[in-house]
Amino acid sequence: MLNVIIQKKKYDSKTVLENIDFDIVEKGIYGFVGKNGQGKTTLFKCILGLNVFDGKIEFNNEKLVLKNIAWCPTEPDLYEDLTAYEFYDFYQELTNCKRQTTNLLFDVPEDKLLKSFSTGMKKKTYLNAIFQNNHQIYILDEPFNGLDLESNYVLMNFLKEKSKDSIVLISSHILEILYANCKSIFVIKDRNIKKFEKDNFNEIEEVIFTIMP
Ligand SMILES: Nc1ncnc2c1ncn2[C@@H]1O[C@H](COP(=O)(O)OP(=O)(O)OP(=O)(O)O)[C@@H](O)[C@H]1O
Fold this sequence. Notes:
Residues 2-211 form the ABC transporter domain. By secondary structure, the chain is an alpha/beta fold.
């Protein structure tokens, strides 16, 4: 299904990712962890085609197109002079997609300007917007940041449902949520990536926190 090859990703002279090569062959939820600055967002942006890098990303043996992915950055940018309802329409037009559901995951005041929203309300609005359509791939960068506990629970249940038909990639620093819900977890460290299956999740913390000699 999803094949990720990143021979090298540099920002100026600094190499952030190197010799990354992994496949995701089954639908499900996959976690990405690593200390701050190890390259989780960079990896996602490479997969999304938002970063220039040496390598290739394919989905079912074809070039992956941004339009087919639901992408939620850690701190989504919203046009704050729009209402939530207007933003949903704007997002549809921007992505050139036809709305597939009118059921919204989160309640937000739809007729209020986004500039009056709290951080969590803005994130909920963005998530509502990207979830208006069904996608084959969902990529969410620290989706639980800014959301209250109940909303995290709602979001996780929604993603579990979506993962029956889609690939869901999540980065997070909350390991417990990933341990409970992911098929596999990828640790990004020292420019490279290591995959852990459920049986080996207990090794992850040691790998993240051990300083290599
Ligand atoms: N646009 C950029 N220009 C230059 N360097 C960048 C850029 N974006 C990221 N970096 C650097 O690349 C490295 C990886 O950053 P990235 O944001 O991918 O890490 P992360 O694992 O997502 O971190 P965090 O957990 O803090 O979100 C960091 O050293 C960062 O400073």
